[in-house]
Amino acid sequence: VVLCAHQPTRQAATKGETRPPTLSQIAYGFSVAQTADIILSMARVRDNPNARNYVVIKMRAGKPIIRLRKLHFDVDKGDIYEESDVEPEWDGKAEEQETEKPY
Fold first, then answer.
1. Domain parsing of the chain, residue ranges
2. Cα angle for residues 43, 46, 49 (degrees, 5° grid)
3. Predicted pLDDT at 77
4. If you ran DSSP here, which 8-state letter would residue 15 be given?
5. Kindly report the CA angle at 2 between 74 and 26, in degrees rounded to 5?
6. Whether this model's pTM surpasses 0.90
7. Which of 62, 20, 25 is nearest to 40 (CA)?
8. What InterPro entries does the annotation carry (predicted)?
């Protein structure tokens, strides 16, 4: 297992910090995105420093999970887990979701 973190492009960062970046918005990450089996995209939750919104934007062995999910994310305590029964609002526009496997 290899875990690699990448920052979003400047274009993605200007859209706001609460929207997870898409595959095309991974800065300098084309090769990483091409070889990865699974890619999660995370973003902060406004007014909650211990939460992150995320989507699975690439899953080589299946369909990506494009529905926005929410994590409890307190790295100082080592607490990282999915919050149950939470589905934050997300417009779900096709341009924000990349459902095709470009790699």
1. 10-82
2. 80
3. 92
4. T
5. 75
6. no
7. 20
8. P-loop_NTPase
Distance CA 22, CA 18 (A): 13
Find tokens 């929410």 and name the residue.
70
Residue 73 predicted with pLDDT over 80? yes
Distance CA 100, CA 59 (A): 10
CA distance 82 to 73: 9
- Helix or strand run (H / E) with residue 42: strand 38-45
Beta strands at 38-45 and 79-82: parallel, antiparallel or unpaired: unpaired
Q: CB–CB of 71/50 below 8 Å?
A: no
Do the beta carbons of residue 73 and residue 50 sit within 8 Å?
yes
Q: CB–CB of 56/40 below 8 Å? A: yes
User: Largest Cα–Cα distance of the chain, in whole Å?
Assistant: 37
Kindly give, in sequence order, each residue whose CB lies less than 8 Å from that of residue 102, ignoring residues fewer than 6 positions away. 23, 24
